[in-house]
Structure formats: structure tokens, C-alpha cells
User: What shape does this take?
Amino acid sequence: MKRIAAFALTSWSAAGLLYVGQHSVALIALSGIVVLAAFDLLRP
Assistant: This one.
């Protein structure tokens, strides 16, 4: 349950980064890193 909550939190934070920095390449790259970290949380 904690992993799913962490995944949801990181996914929403990545979406928030994309919304805030729509035209910023650095924030788009940072949101991609956050999404990859979220997928890493779901690994067994």
C-alpha cells in the first residue's frame, strides 16, 4: 500500500511539474526523471 501511495504521489508531482513548466525543457526533463523514479518504486 505504501508503494502505491508513493507511486501516486510521484506521478502527481511529475504532472504538476509539467503543468508549471510547460515550456521549460529543464522541468520537462525533471518530470521525466520523477516518472522514472516512480516506476522504480513499483519494482519488486
